[in-house]
Design goal:
Protein name: Potassium channel family protein
Membrane topology: Multi-pass membrane protein
Radius of gyration: 30 Å
Structural class: alpha/beta
CATH superfamily of the largest domain: NAD(P)-binding Rossmann-like Domain
Main location: membrane
Strand order of the largest sheet: 5-4-3-6-7-8
Largest sheet: 6 strands, parallel
CATH architecture of the largest domain: 3-Layer(aba) Sandwich
Helix content: 40-55%
Subcellular location: Cell membrane
Order of helices and strands: HEHEHEHEHEHEHEHEHHEEEE
Pfam families: Ion_trans_2, TrkA_N
CATH class of the largest domain: Alpha Beta
């Protein structure tokens, strides 16, 4: 189903076309009835350029008076046709300006109000296929929509994100001013989901300059660019094309494995991979003996496999990477 709000640009184009049509119609009317007009030289030699000039200054209400209708027919046409066209032109012009200013004021007020009360949120740069999937996963994990900020240059994408209750920021995320508006310096996580690896590197560099503590998760297309993202400050780097290729290869031999992986990566159905802190009653025990299916243990920011001797005894501050049963959307 087409997005009914994907039309801000289309609406602007339509208004420009209407204004140009009004200008063209007025020019044609004046040129056809040019015998009823006089210029400042007192001659009736009105060219097509003169007609366009008259239509422009007339519709814009400038009215220099150097070309005027003198015949009764020309004046009647101005009253009956040109004046309504002038009103139409002004309505389009003023309406577009007022709507633009109103939308900017509303967006600015919303962002200012949000920035005054939100901390430890997630910023998603790029709302294409990867960005939307990341947001869906966050929402499926119970993250509140107002805790997610989407940054993109595509107005239609931002309209879709706004429809989900997400906070949106329009602009180029390689600019520090845009990331500041998104509150990167107050956020806990930045998701970089862009289509270009070089742009992802620039966004990561800019974000890391603004915040030394933020966790940056970035997606790249080429494996050779992983080290660039890590050197730029990315905490985790995912090679999107390579990961998809591996799943395709696995699917040719073991399609059930791919189904399990998709199930684990889908937060609102079946099973899901999650992370939680170690409970006091679990301290000193082995992660392999817990009721949960534990895949790994995060200790001091480093992930250890569940069979690693380093995490054979759980310590305070450890976090478990485990498989949990996902809660369907219609259940509490």
């Amino acid at each position: 189903m087409p997005d009914r709000r994907s039309g801000p640009i289309r609406a602007l184009v339509v208004r420009i076309v209407i204004a140009l049509l009004a200008l063209a119609v007025t020019t044609s009317i004046v040129y056809i009835g040019r015998d009823g007009y006089l210029d400042n030289n007192g001659t009736g030699d009105i060219s097509l350029l003169d007609a366009l000039y008259y239509a422009t200054v007339s519709l814009s209400t400038t009215g220099y008076g150097d070309i005027v209708p003198v015949s009764a027919t020309a004046r009647a046409v101005n009253i009956a046709v040109v004046t309504p066209l002038r009103l139409l032109f002004l309505i389009v012009l003023v309406g577009t300006t007022v709507e633009l200013l109103t939308e900017r004021s509303r967006q600015s007020y919303r962002i200012q109000r949000w920035r005054s009360r939100v901390r430890e949120h997630t910023v998603v740069v790029g709302y294409g296929t990867k960005g939307r999937a990341a947001v869906e996963t966050l929402l499926g994990d119970g993250v509140e929509p107002e805790k997610i900020v989407v940054v993109d240059t595509d107005r239609s994408r931002l309209d879709v994100a706004s429809g989900l209750g997400l906070v949106t920021v329009s602009g180029n995320a390689t600019r520090s001013a845009v990331l500041r508006i998104a509150g990167v310096h107050l956020a806990t996580t930045l998701v970089v989901a862009l289509d270009r690896d070089d742009t992802a590197v620039l966004v990561t560099l800019t974000a890391r300059e603004l915040s030394k503590s933020i966790s940056i998760v970035a997606a790249v297309r080429e494996t050779e660019n992983v080290h660039l993202l890590r050197q730029s400050g990315a905490s985790s780097v995912i090679v999107a094309d390579e990961t998809a290729g591996r799943l395709l290869g696995v699917a040719t031999r073991s399609p059930a494995v791919v189904e399990v992986m998709e199930d684990l990566l889908t937060p609102d159905a079946g099973f899901a991979i999650s992370q939680r802190p170690v409970e006091p009653t679990e301290l000193g025990g082995s992660p392999r003996h817990l009721p949960d299916i534990v895949l790994g243990v995060v200790r001091d920011g480093t992930l250890h496999r569940v069979d690693s001797a380093r995490v054979d005894a759980l310590e305070r501050g450890d976090e478990l990477l485990y498989v949990r049963k996902a809660t369907p959307p219609d259940e509490d």
